[in-house]
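hey so i finally got around to running the thing on that chain from the lab meeting. sorry it took forever, my laptop kept dying and i had to restart like 3 times. anyway pasting the input first so we r on the same page abt which one it is
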Amino acid sequence: MFATLKVLFDGERARIEDRLKDTYAVELIDQRIREAEANLSAAKMTLASLIQRRRSEERLADTLDKRIATLEGRAKEALEAKRDSLAAEAAQSIADMENERRIRRDTIDRLDTRIAQLQASVDTAHRRIIDLKQGAITARTVRREQTIQKRLNRTIVGTSAADEAEALIKRVVDQDDPFEQSEILRGIDRQLSGQAADDKLADAGFGDPNRVTADAVLNRLKAEK
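ok and heres what got predicted. didnt touch it at all, straight out
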């Protein structure tokens, strides 16, 4: 039972983690790029330190070369002058410096190997970060497009501001015309009061007219000629 619960909990935790990654994918990409840049910066510092040390070793080795050459010349002069003890002392110093020079040259060779390896790693990491930054730009663009599309989908498909606007337009358009309604009401009132029948009889010429008609106006104009 506990094993089953553990499997269920692990599965739910994995689903939550996936949802978080989907939601904050762009932010996570930017964070990982910052971490990669920090690592690259540290690698550059290490590379600079190795190059600096290599140059220092090279200068010391060159100095030893000069000292050895100078001391060898002096030792030869001592031998020519039959000063064997001085020549032997010089020879010992030369031997010590040659041993030191060999160690420094070996160190330089090792540093050259490490520098070459680290330089290659730095170049690779630099190119990869450039690719990651380009990918991040693409990811942000896609995320914006997805967000806009989701909003459009809600507007087109679901209950939204557009739906509410359409309902309000229909509500206004479908309302009765108040002017037409008042005319109808006046007609109904005339019919109920008998005014409509009285108007019809007056218009037909029975009794005095209740209102001025177009025919009456025409007749008056003709009589005034």
